[in-house]
Amino acid sequence: MQILGRALRSRSEPPATTVAAVESSQFESAVAPLYAALVRRLVLVLGNTDEAQDIAQDAYLQAFRAWERFNGPDVRAWLYTIALRLAFNQIRRRRRWIAAIRRVDPKPWRDPADPDLWAALEDLDPRTRSALLLNVVDGYTQVEIGEMLSVPVGTVSSWISRGRARLREALTPSTDGPNGRA
Amino acid sequence: MNTDLDLKDRLTAIEGRAPAFEPPPIGVGRRRRLALSLGSATLLVFVLAAVAVAGAVVVRTDVRGYPGVENPGQPLAGARLECMSPPQAAAYLATRGYTHVLWQVDSGADKPAFSTTAPTHGYVVVGWIDDDGQLNMLVDQRAGSSGVGACARMTMP
User: Fold this and answer.
1) Are the C-beta atoms of B122 and B105 separated by less than 8 Å?
2) Is the pLDDT of residue B107 over 70?
3) Closest chain A residue to B102 measured between Cα atoms?
4) CA gap B79, B71 in Å, rounded
5) Which of A83, A178, B37, B97 is the most exposed place for a label (fewest CB within 10 A)?
6) 69-128 of A, contacting B, C-beta below 8 A
7) Which residues are CB-neighbours of B23 under 8 A, at least 6 positions away?
8) CA B79, CA B32: separation in Å to the nearest integer?
C-alpha cells in the first residue's frame, strides 16, 4: 500500500498531494497491470469481445470504488471475483434477451489457431469454463475458487472434473478407423 | 491433450491470443455510454488535441514521480508507518535520522495543510522523498476515513 505515483506541484510550492490522489495512484499501480489479462479471461468466459470489454470496465470501476476497503493478499483474485460475478450476471441477462427477441450474438470471438480447443471450451457452461481456467491456468485451489464464485467446494470440484473430462473427450483423437466406430 | 500440462499450455496460449485493451481512465463510465454523434466527436478531437498540448506542457514542468518510502528498496521499506499514530511515526522517523519531516494533513479540503510538526491524530497514509531530499508524510484526517495497508480498518489514533 505504499506505492506513490505522481504529485502535482508548481515550482514555488512543495509537492502537495491528497489521500484521494494517493489511493488513485495505488489502485492504478496495483490493478491496471492486470487489466489486459482480465479482458482476455472475460473474452474466454463470455465469448464476445465487446461484452468482455464492457464487463472489464465495469469491474475496474467497481474495484476502484471498493479499493479503500480492500485488504486481501491477492489483488488478482479480488479483481477476477468482481469481474466474473458481473460476467455471470451479464450471461443471465443475455439469455433473457436472446430468448425475448431471438437475437444472435453479433461479434463472437473465435480462436483460429486452436479451433478444436475453442469449440470444446465453448460447449462448457460459463461457470465450468471459469472454474477450469482459474484452476488450470491460474493455479487457484478448489477452495479458493469456491470463495471467488460463491459456490460450495464440492460444486467447484464437480465443475472442474466434468470440464476436464469434456475437454479430454473432445480433444482426444479418435482411435476408430476411417469408417467410424467398430 | 495428453497431459494436464498440455491442457494448461493450450489454455494459456488460447487466452494469450484473445484481444485485450487498455484500462479505462478512473472515473469514466462504460465505453458504450461514451457513444457520441459525429459532430460531437469532431469537436472532441479538437478539444483533446488542445488538452494534449497543454497537458504535455504541464507534465513536463509540474509532475514528478516519487516512490513511497516504504516500497521495496526504499529507505523505510517494511516500517509499517501506517500502523503508527503521527506522533509515533515522527518519533520512529527521528530515530532513523529523519528529523525534518514535512507533514501534509488531508482533512478533505482542496489542498492539504502543511506542518513541520506531526499532527496529534489521523491515519498515516504514505511517505515520499521529493527532489530536494525532503521527506513528506501524508496524514488522513478526513471524516469517515480508516487505516490503510497492514492496518486497514483500525480506529483513528
Assistant:
1) yes
2) yes
3) A14
4) 10
5) A178
6) 69, 71, 109, 111, 113-114, 117-118, 121
7) A28, A31, A32, A35, A60
8) 44
For chain B, percent of residues with pLDDT exceeding 90:
12
What pLDDT score was predicted for residue A3? 62
* A43 and A67 within one domain: yes
Does the structure show a pLDDT above 80 at A77?
yes
State whether residue A88 is helix, strand or coil: helix
- Identify the three-state secondary structure at position B68: strand
Give the three cell numbers for residue A134: 482459474
What DSSP state is assigned to residue A92? H
Q: Do A36 and B64 touch (CB under 8 A)?
A: no
* Residues A44 and A104 placed together within one structural domain of the fold: yes
Tell whether A43 is covered by a domain: yes
Query: What gap in Å lies between CA A146 and CA A80, rounded to an integer?
Result: 13
Contacting residues of B for A58, CB less than 8 Å apart? 30
Read off the CATH number of the domain in which A62 is found.
Answer: 1.10.1740.10
Together in a domain, B88 and B52: no
**In this complex, which of B29, B71, B152 lies closest to A71 when CB atoms are compared?**
B152
Cβ atoms of residues A90 and A55 within 8 Å: yes
**Range of A145-154, B50-59, B109-118 with top mean pLDDT:** A145-154
pLDDT band for position A138 (cuts 50, 70, 90): very high
Q: What is the span of the domain harbouring residue A35?
A: 18-109
The pLDDT, as a whole number, for residue B45 is 81
Position B26 scores a pLDDT of 66
The pLDDT value recorded for residue B78 is 82
Q: A102 to each of A50, A95, B102, how far by Cα in Å?
A: 19, 10, 64
Instruction: For residue B116, give its domain range.
Output: 81-151
Predicted complex ipTM: 0.75
pLDDT band at A10 (very low <50, low <70, confident <90, very high): low
Residue A181: per-residue pLDDT:
41
Q: Are residues A123 and A44 in the same domain?
A: no
